[in-house]
Amino acid sequence: MISTRLTSLFDIKTPIVGAPMAYVSPPGFVSAISSAGSFGFLGAGNSTPEQLSETLQTIRANLGLQPNVPLPVGVGFITWILEKNNVSTDPRLTSVLEERVQAVWFAFGKDIGSYVRQVREHDSKRDHKTKVFVLVNSLEEALQATNEWGADALVVQ
């Protein structure tokens, strides 16, 4: 076991995160990453809320976890895909949060902060707290993600 802030944050053995890659990180791959003691992300892509819930239930079954137990994986969203719906509460994000994933990842959008707020609002009504990863491309974005949105982790690209 390697002890770092990341391993402590997610109670994992190694500080390795499997990136969310839509269409190339199927449920078995994400499950295997988590089973191996690291943290796996599922890429949401253009999946519907129902498809995301079904996929996360498959991962839950692969890991042998009951529905009331937080799911030790995350789901990554390309934020401009969420923004295409132009709704204040995105049903795909809500479905993922209802499955009790440990983290969400937001990348490439104009208003990532609104989705971070949706996560925080959803979590304020329950005992489970979802960690938020934000992919940033500049110092300015990193400062905004941490100071304005309260991101738990930055992915620097």
From TrEMBL:
GO MF annotation: an example: nitronate monooxygenase activity
Keyword list, A-Z: Flavoprotein, FMN, Oxidoreductase
Organism: Armillaria solidipes
InterPro entries, A to Z: Aldolase_TIM, NMO
Segments traversing the membrane: none
Protein name: Inosine monophosphate dehydrogenase
Keyword match Flavoprotein: yes
